[in-house]
Design goal:
Blueprint (H helix, E strand, L loop, with lengths): L3 E5 L2 H13 L5 E2 L6 E4 L4 E5 L4 H15 L4 E10 L9 E9 L14 E3 L2 H9 L9 E8 L7 H11 L3 E3 L2 H10 L4 E9 L5 H24 L7
Parallel strand pairs: 1-4, 1-5, 5-10, 6-8, 8-9
Antiparallel strand pairs: 2-3, 3-4, 5-9, 6-7, 6-10
Length: 230
């Protein structure tokens, strides 16, 4: 079975996924490497916390590719703030593209933010494995990312208008750039933890475990099927 790399930004998110996989009978073997990481051989899966922020995330992803590859897919997974007001905590967004909202060249005027398209076949594969009634929704659409905490409704609305994204996080573009450099299909998947407003910090802490569990439900359903062949 083809090996998949699943990268989270921070160890809390990685630990949540390890706990979820363990609750479903998939024991993790800790890897001896320079970032927190584990493997689940029965799923042909390597999971790692690649680091917070686009640059660190790209470096961490590249390190795992070099040290534990080859991989046939890279999935960036974590929580995010909702930009679309219809999203609720626990909903999961499968990204069609990762939009780098804080990339702002000035020499020749400010252009549109770079958009890193997900592999369409990978998006379709994951959506085809969507579970039935789970208590949360799975949506498909753009995900914004940049090295900035979005904690005000005004800024969230600004990003929604700029990018058309459903949610916002930090690291997606870093993972997308590393995947493109290695010619590996990529997708970013985010579970909503907050509304990108002034309660985002508290909501993140409160919803982290439940949101990552929902993300795990979708990912495990995909990993347990043959549909991930791309």
């Amino acid at each position: 079975m083809a090996q998949v790399l699943l990268v989270t930004p921070v160890k809390k998110e990685l630990d949540s996924l390890a706990s979820f996989f363990g609750s479903r009978g998939y024991g993790a073997e800790v890897l001896d490497c320079r970032v927190p990481a584990f493997t689940i051989e029965t799923l042909s899966l390597v999971c790692a916390a690649a680091g917070h922020g686009k640059a660190q995330f790209a470096i961490g992803t590249q390190y795992i590719v070099d040290s534990h590859g080859p991989f046939t897919a890279i999935v960036a997974a974590g929580v995010a703030g909702a930009l679309d007001k219809g999203l609720a905590a626990g909903d999961v967004v499968v990204g069609t593209e990762s939009i780098e909202h804080d990339y702002k060249p000035r020499f020749h005027g400010v252009g549109p933010p770079p958009r890193h398209a997900s592999a369409p076949e990978l998006v379709a594969s994951i959506r085809s494995a969507e579970p039935g009634e789970t208590g949360f929704r799975v949506l498909t659409g753009p995900i914004a990312g940049g090295d900035e905490d979005i904690i005000s409704p005004a800024r969230a609305e600004n990003l929604k208008e700029l990018t058309g994204a459903l949610c916002v996080a930090w690291e997606g573009a870093g993972g997308a750039r590393a995947a493109k450099f290695n010619d590996i299909p990529f997708v970013e998947i985010r579970a909503v933890s907050d509304a990108a407003d002034d309660s985002a910090s508290d909501d993140y802490k409160f919803n982290l475990e439940a949101s990552m569990t929902n993300l795990g439900i979708l990912l495990l359903r995909w990993l347990e099927t043959d549909r991930r062949q791309i």
